[in-house]
């Protein structure tokens, strides 16, 4: 796992949207098609139509650009999962199942598939960022848990459950990719996990 690097400079985030999207697209393509050890800054600047000096104005180094890209992909994946869960507010796991089914339809040429593929190969997406208790995302998450009548005692547990659920989703997608499963096999395996989460796996005796 790479050492932590600073986020891109504020200059990068202040770029015109079209230029930033171009750089984002090049980073995705380069990191998807090659191992980071084979990615060259020269290729990124050439394909992004920026100078080498501009690259180092935006990022400290190649690893910084990679860490930024993985964090960005993770956020986009999380956002997509939230979208599907929100469509099924009273059936939490159905929303995730629909997200997985949606993912299974992507081809390797699609950007979302490339993001998933990169994130399943990286440990960086598991890093827990500090999230304020009053953030809109946490409020939305707590509302979803309440609507589904989950037993969550405090915000800290809610955040831990959030990362646990994301880990379950990414684990399912990792298995889907590694084993070249069909969509049906992906959903069947995910339903096993849901049953384990809901009901556990140990048979309960009346005397217990």
From TrEMBL:
Pfam families in the record: TetR_C_19
Domain annotation HTH tetR-type: ranges: 17-77
PROSITE patterns: HTH_TETR_2
UniProt keyword Metal-binding present: no
DNA-binding region of this protein: 40-59
A single GO molecular function term of this UniProt record: DNA binding
Keywords annotated in UniProt: DNA-binding
PANTHER family, alphabetized: ACREF/ENVCD OPERON REPRESSOR-RELATED, ACREF_ENVCD OPERON REPRESSOR-RELATED
Name by which UniProt lists this protein: HTH tetR-type domain-containing protein
Organism: Enterococcus casseliflavus EC20
